[in-house]
Write the structure tokens for this entry.
Amino acid sequence: MDDLTQIIDPPPSRTRLLLDGMRALRKPELDGAPLLPKARLVRPAVELSAEGIAAYGRACGFRREQGVPLTYPHVLAFPLHLMLLTRPSFPYPASGMVHLANRIRQYQRLREGQALRLEVYAERWVAHPKGQALSIATRAYSAGALVWEGDSLYLRRGVADPVGEPWVDALGVASDSWVRTQTWLLPADLGRRFAKVSGDFNPIHTSVIGARLFGFRRAIAHGMWTLGRALAAQQPPGGLERAEVRCEFKLPILLPGQVALWNPPSSGPRRAFEVRNGAGDKPHLRGLLSFNENLQ
Amino acid sequence: MSHYSFNPAPTRRVAIIGGNRIPFARSNTVYAHDSNQDLLVAALQGLVDRYNLHGQRLGEFAAGAVIKHSRDFNLARESLLSTTLSPETPAYDVQQACGTGLEAALLVANKIALGQIEAGIAGGADTTSDAPIGINESLRHTLLAANRAKGMGNQLKALLKVRPSMFFKPLLPRNGEPRTGLSMGEHCEEMAKRWQIKRLAQDELTLTSHQRLAAAYQRGFFDDLISPHRGLARDNNLRADASLERLAGLSPAYDRQSGTLTAGNSTPLTDGASVVLLASEAWAAEHGWPVLAYLRTGETAAVNFVDGSEGLLMAPAYAVPRMLHREGLSFADFDLFEIHEAFAAQVLCTLKAWEDPDYCRERLGLAAPLGAIDRAKMNVNGGSLGCGHPFAATGGRQLAALAKAIHERGGGRGLISICAAGGLGITAIVEK
């Protein structure tokens, strides 16, 4: 069944995802090169519901006048990512996959009430210095046209001879002239709050004990929350037509905590940004947001 | 069809008759138990006493506060009712962050200039001692849901969502920009770094502010500008014995590693209130009051600080050249400058910006830089660093002090400049 396009309707329940996740905690030792999962998971019509957007917006700090957040379709597609990563045929344990980078492109304005056809599939292996990375593609169609797409790079650490094209660090390094433009206080229950809107109940984000099991001192902020918060701070009022954001996740943010947004001093609709620690010397997230006429 | 006709009255000069304020007190000191209204009433009653306005119906009283309780929705009117002014004097609240006091004065002045009123009072008060503490947001939402619910059963059901922890996490007022989460000091620290403002220059400006304020008290300059309140006769932030050595000993307040802003060269949280009496020349003559000076015009500006392309407190740098261009004036035409000192660094950034040819060309659109301000003409009777800064009360303090200083020297022209939260800047010209 792995070769099939598989229609997922209704969406997987939270329990189902949790059970799959637990079943996928252990995987047999891999013999040779990993095989790329071939399944294409499809949800034929997911509504961009006003309530869903509002709840997601509250969690990340988006305001209503900003329209549909650029990252919102990712949240809708995330259960499919999880289904792909927890399949018996997937070679690595899902919970050990680290979200490394993300690229989102929007080709048309998204509207509340609009229905999207979401497709998720494993696109390619990427050889990363720290292990084996996998790019998962998310495609969103409306009336047959591709309106939004996301490419998420997940990493399995410690794989000796990773396959695929080599990883390229595409985002430049910040210069000394960058300024801190915002600070955010992150409460201890941020992970649980975001889980309610994202459906990602990964214990490293939602509980101290869960985080300790995976080697973190405390729960860590969800990377997609951090990206969402950064976009909420930078998306213009009035909603986006065409837009692109590229980001790389760096050091984890321990909760509770305080982090800051940094930007180059003069910036327009093509904005580089970093989320850094309180002292401003370590990056948690690095990104580049372009929108509307400035999209290349 | 109705015929639209607008017949502007000939614009009239707006006389500044006088002002009154209470001494400013550092937060949680002498005025710890006073509300905004208590402070505003004290300042207003002092003015009414000084200018014998008892029982008089004036055109209006416009005033405000930056940090307000929800019960202060009609602060100016409620304050007025507690004084001996005629209760038939209308009043309204104004709020433009730290520009509140000056903006209120511009509003009253414009009505006088247009002939809509003959005399009015503008002012402002602020206390951070009696700050509003909101109930927990979740508790508030729960209570509102219970309030909306129909029937006892549904109301009780809604109230079941109240959790004990909600009572221990109140909503505290924050001294930070809502859109950036950065405190004003942190914003100003970024500006100081961008403009490379030295610590020593900031401390020197602070010292001058204290020294000039002390000297002004010494020679009785404030005798007819201040009414004592709660046993306080002068601003208790004033350190007549301040020295560069003492200021140098303070550690950075907002950036412990590489910062230059300290508790000394930044204004502290302050409680206080101020009011100014404005009138037409005819009203002044009729009541026999000399005109200290005229409020000629004002200009406000705003900058985009959200994306970091401009510093939060840099808006006056834009407002002043716009106003000078409109009025056909240059710095050479001014004898006095009243620049609000929120932070010594913010004053120095603004002064440096006006001297910078690149900045003046690229940001302000000026062919030549505005130029330097003679420090001997700036804040000659002390500034906010010396007396403190009760947000909405600063404009009235500056306006009255500048008008009196112009009157004392027998005429001249002065500039007021105030930076405010939200990237706002409020400026005005006073002359005689």
User: Anything to note?
Assistant: The first helix of chain A runs from residue 14 to 23. Chain A is about 20% helix and 35% strand. Chain A touches chain B at residues 179-185, 234, 263-267, 271, 279 (CB under 8 Å).
